[in-house]
Specification:
142 residues; alpha/beta; seven-stranded mixed beta sheet; 4 helices; 24% helix; binds adenosine-5'-triphosphate; binds magnesium ion
């Protein structure tokens, strides 16, 4: 996978700016895979993408459901967290293909765990911790 840009995020405010911009520019059918260790800020970034989509609801990690739908914004947001998925094939059981081909934006936390099932044209952000507190390195395929 080709990394097109590397962004140094200094603090959560930078994450917010980045996420809002991504949400504002999001097109329907767009799929954003987030890959990064525990606590790197995948859910936090998703919240800010939601803010850019003008979603009013509070975003929380979809721990028990794999996917949560938010429909109060400019377009639907389908937020996946596949951390606890046993088998990537489970994605088919929850109808992931319909979300992927759907009318909204899909954000997939831990996309690396379901790499085989991710659509070909997905965008990815690989998130790493930086050296300082609050710092993150975003490696983007777009
Ligand atoms: N630059 C930053 N971007 C995002 N979150 C940050 C940043 N700096 C500090 N944080 C903090 O790091 C934490 C990230 O938690 P979050 O739940 O978003 O991570 P996650 O990657 O979704 O974790 P998990 O793997 O458990 O799903 C939050 O408490 C957030 O406030
Ligand atoms: Mg999370």
């Amino acid at each position: 996978m080709e990394i097109k840009k590397i962004i140094v995020i200094k603090n959560e405010e930078d994450t917010r700016r980045f996420g809002i911009e991504l949400g504002k520019n999001a097109k329907k059918g767009q799929i954003i895979g987030l890959v990064g260790d525990l606590g790197t800020g995948k859910t936090t970034l998703t919240k800010y993408i939601a803010e850019g989509l003008e979603i009013k609801e509070n975003i929380s990690s979809p721990t028990f459901t794999i996917v949560k739908e938010y429909k109060s914004g400019r377009m639907p947001l389908y937020h996946f967290d596949v951390y606890r998925i046993g088998d990537p094939e489970e994605l088919f059981n929850i109808g992931a293909e319909e979300y992927f081909d759907g009318d909204g934006v899909c954000v997939v936390e831990w996309a690396d765990l379901v790499a085989e099932e991710m659509p070909e044209d997905s965008m990815y952000i690989f998130i790493e911790y930086g050296e300082l507190e609050g710092e993150r390195i975003y490696k983007c395929t777009f």
